Sequence to fold (107 residues):
Amino acid sequence: MDENVRPARRSDIIWRHEARREQELLEAQERGEDISDRGTVILVAGGTMHQLNLLGGEIWRRCDGNTTVARIVSDLAGEYDVDPAEIDRDVREFIEDLNQRGWISYE
Fold:
């Protein structure tokens, strides 16, 4: 995937960012709890509700059609204490999964 691609959420997908839930998860993460299966973004696609975990939600929110993949990776690498190569791989895999599901397109 080209780093200058700008992933864009489909406009017909209904979604909501759960800010309070995100704060709770960040606090749980600081306490050392495993939060990988708890979500911060809820979306409805094809009549089915989906919950995206903390990182997935962060990626989803940045898929605005204006932000490049390279910028998404850079922003998240600055926010998370994770190997930049791992963030790059995770972001690209997640965006490709969103694309395969038909939830985003590439600008």
Observations:
- The two ends are 12 Å apart (CA to CA).
- The CA atoms of residues 25 and 81 lie 16 Å apart.
- The mean pLDDT is 94.
